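Quick question: what would this complex look like in 3D?
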Amino acid sequence: MGRWVTACAIDDVDEEDVIRFDHEGKVYAIYKSPQGEFFATNGVCTHEHAYLSDGLVMGDIIECPKHNGRFDYRTGAARSAPACVDLATFPVRIEGEDVLVEVG
Amino acid sequence: MAGRVIVGAGECGARAALALRGRGFDGPIHLVGEEAELPYERPPLSKAVLAEDGAPPRQVVNEAALAERSITLHRANPAVAIDRDARIVRLADGGALCYDLLLLATGARPRRLQKDGAEIAGIHYLRHMADCRALRQRLGSGAKLLVLGGGFLGLEIAATARRRGCAVTLIETQPRVLMRGVPADIADVVAARHRAAGVDLRCGVGIAGIAADETGAAVTLADGSRLAGDLLVACVGAVPNTELAAAAGLTVDNGIVVDARLRTGDPAIFAVGDCCAFPLSSRDGRVMRLESWRCALEQAEAVAGSMLGEERPFETVPWFWSDQYELSLQVAGLPEPDHAIVERRLADDAFILFHLDATGRLAAASDIGPDGSIARDIRLAEMLIARRARPDPALLSRAEVKLKGLLAA
């Protein structure tokens, strides 16, 4: 079973935006959708090493800052070249003001 | 059975093949390449793949994925002629492929240095994986490298070679590096970084002579001084591979000329990537040829739609990037010398320049900073360019004003 860890506070992320969360040597990306819902994926692009937290969130899509590969951050699905391998996703829940992620 | 034939198995051609299949085309697809490799990404050849002995190229697609999609790859077997009447592409090994639609993704090749009309031997160039292997093999620690040309490619090779411990001299005949398409303020940061890394940067010098062989290379400057090294790599631009198209009677004007759907004058033949000249939407349809990795990828996607009968015109904002040392620089749009420039400081070591045309329209944006720090703003700037926005310069200059907000305005 995974463990739930606090990644950030709900106000740390703007709507339609992403921040980076580091935990035990792993990098995660925490997203807030335009509707205010939270999601988490692996924080590094599957194409080439780049932090997705430097990328741009547009609707349900995170676009990698390096080469503009796109993923649906809700499912991790790769949506456009050069990205072709899906992102790992992680369950998220809100407790009070905290955003918790279930790490692997 | 005739199908889709794609001439050029670089990243653009390979991605077009994948896109055709991805969009449901179920006839034969032939991908014709001159190299022995599987299709791979070229940008890392001046960076990560050059940096490490034995590093493989990063493949766009592997054998299994090609087989699964029934894409036939013809390796090391370039197309040598197109018979438009019979709709046949002839290959170097004597084979022939029938097509109902043909895509030319023949790319570009390095401009080669000549003397008295003949190519100067013994000079390295970088385009293919084979070039990268040949260059890499000579870049052992301590080698003295001469780089001719201060564009993206020459500078990236210089940075990689310095990281490998090579002594590097870079020679640029223009007054500064990155004269083409990068503003002086950004080029200055790049030049300073190279000098700090120990590159001997010689800009604005005339070249009187070049000599190279397997054992060494030397460049004689106009002032008579002589720069010597173990090898010389020339990065002095690229020329589009248009010979096949021209021989087949297609219109060529600094690239194979295509319309907004990426189709040549022959409705059965399309062209994409570095080899084509296309109407650039963000430049009011001016026909241009770009050497842009991302544009080639976008065109590969778009042409698959065109070849399946879609009528949507191709739209893009040109986008270029370069990674050198820890720095990343990006340019969206095409900066012109007469643009007004508005600077936005993103951090001590990162800034973005907005290039506004005479009407106040955002025509281009360029930036530089530590890897990753600048990508988001340039992407938003690009979206503003695509929308033909005329943002308030005062807002552009203030880092606390979110560009995303300007986009929504």
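Answer marked as accepted. Chain B has three domains: 3-109+238-307, 112-234, 326-408.
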